[in-house]
Amino acid sequence: MDVEDLLQKHALLESDINIIADQIQTVNKQAEKFTTEEGPDGSGYNPVEPQLVRERMNILNERYNELLELATERKSRLGDNKRLCQFWWDLADLENNLKEQEQVLVLTDTGRDIFSVNHLLAKHKNAENNLDSVRRALDTLEKQGNDLVGEQIPGSETIPDSLDSINHYYAKLRQLADSRRKTLEGGVEYYQFFSEADDVEAYLLDTLR
Predict the structure, then answer these.
(1) CA atoms of 18 and 21, how far apart (whole Å)
(2) Within 13 Å, how many C-alpha atoms sit on residue 85's CB side?
(3) DSSP state of 39
(4) Residue 35, CA atoms < 13 Å, CB-side half-sphere
(5) What sections of the sequence does the record tag as coiled-coil (predicted)?
(6) For 45-158, where are the alpha helices, taking DSSP H only?
């Protein structure tokens, strides 16, 4: 059973606890008349010791408060577990995103003309923009992860190592991105030079005719 199912089940339990609270309130209201020395009808006759009734009422209230405290603690634990599961899910999703960008960044194709290299450069810039988005998402995840670790949520012990690993992976991809962008920009300049040289040569030939 996943944490969402457990939270839904807990919500049903809380509804039952609220019903119990109403029942206890009704019972206590009925029992109040047996806690006075005058008795339930004011005649002074009491079929039961008032002190005994008060003790039973106190026990009932204590048991309910214990139940309420247990429910609150369980809800808190389930909430923490949900946060932890969401963190790991988001971290895995972010890592998959990085792997997708890596496929673009490790390309060795540098184009064969000005048009193809510009196409590759545009594709590369899109990957770099995606890396920027990943960085922002990673910063958010780091804060969430550090909060989980700081709160000593069970299961958060491996978060620092996982964050270090994905930060290292990100830094490696950023280096790849910088290197490939320089290569592609150099290719643009290279093909641009020959394109302009061809234009000048064509102009000169046309002028000399």
Answers:
(1) 5
(2) 9
(3) -
(4) 12
(5) 54-81, 117-144
(6) 50-105, 114-150
**Neighbour-count burial for 5-39, b at 16+ CB within 10 Å, e otherwise:** ebeeebeeeeeeeeeeeeeeeeeeeebeebbeeeb
Paired tokens of 10: 């807990």
- Domains of the chain, residue spans: 3-208
pLDDT tens, position by position, 15-48: 999 999 999 999 988 888 878 777 676 667 667 7
Residue 193 tokens read as: 């030079």
Backbone region of residue 49 per phi and psi (left: phi > 0; alpha: psi in -120 to 50; beta: other values): beta
Give the pTM: 0.74
d(CA 9, CA 16): 11
The tokens for 151 are 């709160």
* Per-residue tokens: 53: 């009734």
pLDDT digit string (tens) for 51-81?
A: 888 899 999 999 999 999 999 999 999 999 9
